[in-house]
Specification:
Elements lengths: L2 H31 L16 H24 L1 H12 L1
Keywords: Membrane, Transmembrane, Transmembrane helix
Length: 87
C-alpha cells in the first residue's frame, strides 16, 4: 500500500467515527420526536426502524476505530510489503 493511500484511508476512517456517531445521535433525536413512545422503534414519519439504524451507526463507528487501530499496529508491515513489491 502506498503511503499516500494509507494516509488518506486513515484520514477517512478518523472522519468516519464522529460522522457515524453524529448520525446515531441524529437518529436518536428522530426516535424521540417521530415515535409515540420511546420504546417504539418504527418512525411514524418515514417507517424506518430507528433502533436498527442507531445500532448500525454505532457498529460502523466501532469498526472504523478497530480498522484504525489495526492499520496503526501493522503500519510497518503494510507499507514495507508494498514498497518491496514495487522495487
Amino acid at each position: 500500500m502506498r503511503k499516500t493511500i494509507y494516509i488518506i484511508t486513515l484520514i477517512l476512517l478518523i472522519i468516519g467515527i464522529p460522522l457515524f456517531e453524529f448520525m446515531a445521535f441524529n437518529s436518536m433525536v428522530s426516535l424521540k420526536y417521530e415515535t409515540r413512545k420511546l420504546t417504539d422503534c418504527i418512525s411514524i414519519v418515514s417507517g424506518i426502524d430507528l433502533c436498527n439504524a442507531i445500532r448500525t451507526f454505532h457498529i460502523l463507528a466501532i469498526l472504523c476505530g478497530l480498522i484504525i487501530i489495526g492499520l496503526l499496529i501493522y503500519r510497518k508491515q503494510i507499507l514495507k510489503q508494498k514498497s518491496e513489491n514495487e522495487i
